[in-house]
Amino acid sequence: MAQNSSPRIERIAYQIWWLIQDSAGECTLQDMAEFTGASMRTCTQICRYRGWAGAYRKMAQSPAAESGPRMIEALDGELSALFGEAA
Questions:
Q1: What is the rounded CA–CA span in Å between residue 87 and residue 5?
Q2: Residues in CB range of 75: below 8 A, 6 or more apart
Q3: 29 with 56: CB under 8 angstroms?
Q4: Taking residues 38-49, what's their average pLDDT?
Q5: C-alpha distance across the termini of the chain, in Å
Q6: What one-character-per-residue DSSP string does 1-32 give?
Q7: What is the per-residue pLDDT for 87?
Q8: Among residues 61, 57, 15, which one has the least CA distance to residue 34?
Q9: CA-based nearest residue to 45, from 29, 31, 59
Q10: How far, rounded to the nearest angstrom, does the alpha carbon of residue 79 sit from its chain's CA centroid?
Q11: Per-residue confidence at 1, pLDDT binned at 50, 70, 90?
């Protein structure tokens, strides 16, 4: 199969590969698009063509995962206020 790849596509592919390697796969398509200056669609197509579709995270981390400990502390505070320190 002949490869008709432009220098721009090769540059973007190298940047995506570097980002995946540097972040140990902890990057998203949005991260790739911001890093390369290309569209998310272009990044998706390059990853599919190069076989990197499973090498990165598909979605950004949910903000709920970061706020979990704060929610538990707030709930503990509310329960203590309602039931006293016995809760």
A1: 65
A2: none
A3: yes
A4: 95
A5: 69
A6: ------HHHHHHHHHHHHHHHHTTT---HHHH
A7: 44
A8: 15
A9: 29
A10: 36
A11: very low
